Amino acid sequence: MSEYAENLSSALAQRRYERIASIMDSTVKKGSEEIFTLSDMLDQVFLNKYLGVPIFLTMLWTMFQFAFAVSEPFVVIIEKIFEMLGAWSDQIISNPHLASFVSLGIIGGLGSVLVFIPPIFGLFLALSILEDSGYMARAAFVMDRFMYHLGLHGRSFIPLMIGFGCNVPAIMAARSMDNEKDRMITMLISPLISCSARLPVYVLIAGALYGAAYAGTAVFAVYALGIMLAVAMALIFRRTLFKGEPSPFVLELPTYAVPKARTAILHMWSRGKMFLKKAGTIIFGAAILVWFLSVHPWEATSGGQVIAESYIAWIGHAIEPLFQPFGWDWMAAVALLFGLVAKEVVVGTYGILLGAEEASLGDALVSQGVFTPLTGFAFMAFVLIYVPCVAVIGTIAKETNSIRWPAFALVYQTALAFIIAGMIIGAGRLLGLS
Amino acid sequence: MKEFSVRTGRLLGIYALVLGVGYGAQALAETIGGRESFPGGILSIAVLLVISATYLMGAKSLVAGRREGLSFLMGGLFLSGAVGGLYLLMTGADWLMYLLGEVEDFALLSEISPATVLLIVALPLVPMMRKMTRGMAW
């Protein structure tokens, strides 16, 4: 009897385990090296520990080349339209004050910014495509691996990527970070990421000084400099003002997808609309102010013909000594000053100061010897680093609920801009570059 | 994923090797010769080297019969498409500049960059990859 009971127990146990195995076979996925999705396959490459960062830099370079080189003919078309408008306004407007306002203030000032709509929209389109494809989240993951070794938080990278469009939402995006120190570091370094407002300055100077062959590369170099400085300053802040270990970074990677043209264009448009709205308000207002200061006193400037006798020249000469060691003149000084309102105003200021007589503003920069390749690159670096605009300072004040941190940001960024521009000029001169 | 034979893997591996060497050779030619049709200087050379490395890592795995080589091949195709497509668009932009009178001449053959040519060489891999990954979820 006991033998039969023992056999029955064994048989029941065996049947029970057979049933369990059958259920597990149909429901449990065992880990293996088998790749099951296309996203897994692509992640093997894009998140590869050797290729991840180089591929990210490749995509970044491709993005900037696309924004700059492919948009060039459209920039020329817009320039030609404004040239025609300038010539037409000179013919039909008899009042010299009004003619000066239209040709210099509107066409020279605002127009010189609007010609950069194609590269700005091109950049937004490229960013939208990368985001919609799912690659941007991988970029954050890849950079986290790199940044973690420096004691930085990978989650900082996402607001930094937003900063390519505009630094204001990038600073606000830092709210997503739980750790207060990580959040402060992100807010302080976000302005070092080159926003789209600075792109017209780069496109103008790089296009004029380096030619079509190397302009895209020069622009990429400036963006890369911004990323490197952001990482370096984050490291310094982590070791000094905000000591501690970064909190773990957990990020859900979305699956890859083929970006849809309609969605990418809509994303591009929603970002580009902000630029157009800014152009119609802040930049236009600043252009009028710069125009007024550059043609008055009206008699002393002979109706705006002799800019050297204007109020703006007086302001420029007063602050020029700060920038003379870099080889920049008073025009660069006032352009940087008015650039505090919005970075596009740097281009608008040059458009007014150099006049609209040249075929393009870029030609005017070259023919009048405003910059050399070395001083031009240092200028682009200065524009990258010094305070982006008053809106950024205001946002930092609002997000930190203090005046200490925006004041600190203003001071450290300005100081860093002088240091880096000085290092570029110094290194260039040591290498015998002009 | 559809199973692939050792022979197919070796064939794909050799194709990836050819593409990897092609991109590497172009990077070397750019470094030595500085072809005008390949603008961008040192960064464009670095980009070519990244694409070359991606294909070569895939070639190594495929020739050894490892499935992960397909991932690198796919990644390489993506990069070839992005960079080759970019240079194709830049050629189009140069043509538009010629039409606008901003440049004096435009010779299509000299304007087509080696990256575009290598993209065309890589294109036959696309239907092969699509066939092998048919039915796979994203």
Could you explain the architecture of this structure?
The complex is a heterodimer of chains A (434) and B (138). Chain A is mainly alpha-helical. Chain A is 71% helix and 0% strand. Chain A starts with a helix and ends with a helix. The relative contact order of chain A is 0.11. The model of chain A has no long low-confidence stretch (mean pLDDT 83). The longest helix of chain B is centred in the middle third of the chain and has 32 residues, at 68-99. In chain B, helix 1 (6-33) packs antiparallel against helix 2 (42-63), helix 1 (6-33) packs antiparallel against helix 5 and helix 2 runs antiparallel to helix 3. Chain B has helices spanning 6-33, 42-63, 68-99, 108-111, 114-122, 125-132. The model of chain B has no long low-confidence stretch (mean pLDDT 83). Chain B contains 6 helices and no strands. Classes of the chains: A mainly alpha (434), B mainly alpha (138). At the A-B interface, helix 2, helix 3, helix 4 and helix 11 of A face helix 2 and helix 3 of B.
Summarize the structure in short.
The complex is a heterodimer of chains A (434) and B (138). With 434 residues, chain A is mostly helical.
Mean pLDDT of chain A: 83
Number of strands of chain B: 0
How would you spell out the order of helices and strands of chain A? HHHHHHHHHHHHHHHHHHH
Largest sheet descriptor of chain A: none
Q: How large, in whole angstroms, is the Cα Rg of chain A?
A: 28 Å
Q: Which segments of chain B are poorly predicted (pLDDT under 50) over 5 or more consecutive residues?
A: none
Largest interface: A-B, 42 and 40 residues
- Class per helix and strand makeup of chain B: mainly alpha
From the spread of the alpha carbons, the general shape of chain B counts as elongated
Quaternary structure classification: heterodimer
H-E string of chain B: HHHHHH
Broad structural category of chain A: mainly alpha
**Tally of DSSP helical segments of chain B:** 6
Low-confidence stretches of chain A: none
Strand content of chain B: under 5%
Helical content band of chain A:
over 70%
Q: How would you state the average pLDDT of chain B, rounded? A: 83
User: With helices defined by DSSP (H or I, 4 residues minimum), what is the helix count of chain A?
Assistant: 19
